[in-house]
Amino acid sequence: MDVRVNSLAERPDRLPAVLGMADTWPEFVTQDPVGNAHYGRIPTELPEYALFAEDGEGEILAHAFSVPFRLDAEGRGALPARGWDQILLWAFSDLRRGVRPDTVGAISVVVSPRAQGRGLSAVMLSAMRANAAARGFREVVAPVRPSAKHREPHTPIHEYAHRVRPDGLPHDPWLRVHARAGATIDSVAPASMTVGASLAEWRRWTGLPFDTAGDVEVPGALVPVRCEPERGYAVYVEPNVWMRHPL
Questions:
Q1: Three-state secondary structure along 97-140?
Q2: What are the sequence ranges of the domains in the chain?
Q3: Is 95 helix (H, G, I), strand (E, B) or coil?
Q4: Under CATH, what is the fold of the domain 4-193+237-246?
Q5: Using an 8 Å Cβ cutoff, are 142 and 243 in contact?
Q6: pLDDT digits over 48-98, tens only?
C-alpha cells in the first residue's frame, strides 16, 4: 500500500486531521480515566512519538502513538500489572520530572475504518519500532489488546494469550502481528485498563439493561463487566498481554 508515514513533530499541521480520524473503539473503552487524562497529551507534548499514515491525497489512514518512559527505576523494573494505564502514568511523570527514558511503550495503533484490511496495522507497528530505534532505544514494550479476545470473554487471558496455531504463531490476530514483527510474550497485565461508571452510563454506552448483579457480557469487551445494581455501579477491568520488541 502506498502511504507516507510521518510524525506530528515533522508535520504539526496535520494534528487536526489526525485527531479527527474515525476509529472503531467501543464507547466504553474510551472512558478509562487514565486514558482520558493522558492519551490526548501525546500528540501535543510528545509529537515525535505520534505517527500517522496518509495516502497520496492527504487522507489520514492510520495513526500510532507511543510514549518514552524509564523502566529501570526504583519501584519499576518489571512490566506492570496495570499495563496501559501504568505506562501512561510513568511516561508523563517522567516527562514532568525530566527523567531520562530507557524504553518506549506502545500505546495505540488505530486504523481508519475506511482503510482496514490492508495491512496498515503492521505498517504502523513497524514505523513505531523504527522511530524508537532511531531515537536510540533498544526496546519497545506493548500492552497488547488481543483483537479477537472479545469473542471469548470467559476464557482466562493467560490461556488465550498462549494459544498458538500449528505454525507456532499466536492464535490471536493482533498478537500474531506483533510476533511476526519480532516480539515475544513477557507476561499478562491483568488490570491494564479500568473503567468504573454508573449503571446509567453503562446503559448509555452499551444499550444493555445492566439490572442484574454479576458478570455482564458486553460487545467488544475482553472480559465481562461486573455489575452491582445495589450500588448503582459497574466496573470493567481489561487484561492485556505484554509483548517485548527488541530493537
A1: HCCCCCEEEEEEEEECHHHCCCCHHHHHHHHHHHHHHHCCCCEE
A2: 4-193+237-246
A3: helix
A4: Aminopeptidase (3.40.630)
A5: yes
A6: 999 999 999 999 999 999 999 999 999 999 999 999 999 999 999 999 999
